[in-house]
Amino acid sequence: MTTLLAIESSCDETAAAVLRDGRELVCSHVSSQIAIHAKTGGVIPEIAARAHVEAMPVVVGEALKSLSGGWDEIDAIAVTRGPGLVGCLLVGTAYAQMAAVARKVPVVGVSHLAGHVYSAWLSDTGLEPPYLALLVSGGHSECVLLREHGAAEELLATRDDAAGEAYDKVARLLGLPYPGGPVLDKLAREGDPARFSLPSTSLSDSLSFSGLKTAVRYLVRDLPVTAYLEDGSLDRQVQADIAAAFQARVIAQLTGALERAQERTRAQQIALVGGVAANSGLRAAVLERFSGLKVVIPPMALCTDNAAMIGAAGWNRIQTSGYDRDGFDADPGLRLFA
Ligand code: KG4
Ligand code: ZN
Description:
It is built from eleven helices and eleven strands. With 338 residues, the chain is an alpha/beta fold.
């Protein structure tokens, strides 16, 4: 039995988790920086890195409280090596490697993207590769086929913004708080998707959200004065109708891409992962579109950034490639299984 301490710090969540043999989750703690970044409407990398330095010993301490022996029970450490913001990744990779030396345990560097793909494997013990994952988050939007443990193929990716990034930017255009995804998702349920017309994007080999985002920008710019309240903010029904139209376009594009990837690979198992997998409309659309296949959508806490998924990916990496014996640097451009 391997008891693994997993650490995540690639963007704006500092997280630590403990897992036994990759799939038994003992605990998962996440310290979110949302309150810090809400003030600036987005993540400022240096502020995020400094916040990780403060939060890291706290979340690791919380995670170790779940073990009666504390550090003495930890056999190995897994840490996110990339992709992400370099200053943030350096906090986690330095902390993990120093702790590994101090505790005389081995360490493994893990791809954050592999972590998201493995969040589905962690949440459903009946799921084994091969499976097709739609990974949609604030930093990434791609379709990935996990052929077997340690071997994944990227089938298509966004050529510009990530889906979550588009949600955050559109929310800002509508005067809504950061992060925009959850707010827009809620508003979209009250809106009429047919009131405003927005362009549909359907590319055979990639995803793209920047055209849609720009269309929302022009739509907001050209709204009549009646769309605004006396204090200058947008009327709530206008916000809801734009949110509904935007969300319908995003869902149509994502489900269309997933359908093409499924037809190409003939995958019989589908996973929806990443922060945008928390979207109620997308969850419902994927479940309906692929009702004949096994569809795994992890619980919300495993969709947004967390260390449990890094532990699951790390444990599988240890099985296929062993530990990283020579030390490693943070890698902001790391791909799926580098
Ligand atoms: O996976 P995640 O926590 O961090 C990254 O690795 O990027 O994803 C965060 C993103 C944010 O852009 C946020 O707006 C989006 O996920 N998000 C959502 C929802 N909840 C979070 N987007 C759409 N609908 C949601 N319900
Ligand atoms: Zn993520």
